[in-house]
Amino acid sequence: MRFAKGHGTENDFVILPDPEGELDLTKETVRLLCDRRAGIGGDGVLRVVRTRAFGETLAPAARTAERPEWFMDYRNADGSIAEMCGNGVRVFARYLLHAGLVQGDRFEVGTRDGAKKVRVEADGDITVDMGFVEVHGTSSAKLARQVVHGTQISVGNPHLACEVAGAVADVDLTEPPALDGEAFPAGANVEVYRKVAPGVLEMRVYERGSGETRSCGTGIVAAAVAASPAGEAATWRVRVLGGECTVDLDPEGARLGGPAVIVAEGETSLL
What we know:
By secondary structure, the protein is mainly beta. It is 12% helix and 44% strand. Belongs to the diaminopimelate epimerase family.
């Protein structure tokens, strides 16, 4: 089986070209592919599938995903299916361009959160229109050594974005956060962030199904929304362990921009 490897601000993915949707991608296979010792290694798997291969199986929330030719079938490192991945969409878009599957600097990618508009910038970065972001009130999470309080946000997938007073490097993210089960029945990504300069945030994230990662696109958007006055336009540079992304917020939604690169291609016998 052919594969590629790519990352967006070091949020890395195994990319599997499967145009006709013929691959039986089990949880066990995803876990092995993402294993950094026994497999290729990654925070998740991006399966490249023609949208028509899904037939009538797409959920109602994803119906606009029927417009693009290509669908991003995203799996977390533990094999679970995720609704959306901001860095994943940008890396997926880079792969489509790299493989000659799309042309031009503007196109759409299908996801379980619907069709996402993608734009290639003059400097080579990729920006994805994340659509409208939903804010659902407040909640808290118990981390290894502290309780953090934050804003419940949906960026197609669930988040709890928590502002902290000290450096985010001091927060212990070695254990899965304990969340309010009523607020997050399917779990959530948890971000801790701090404003370090006007228009600049630093952030770390514990991703549902993957653990702490060096970046999370939807988490970056969630932190930017949580840090912004409700309903106001804002632009944030968000620094994560793997680099920096930009988030633009306005009444039309959120846009996430940053680097996305393909670093390797090859064949694997793990499938």
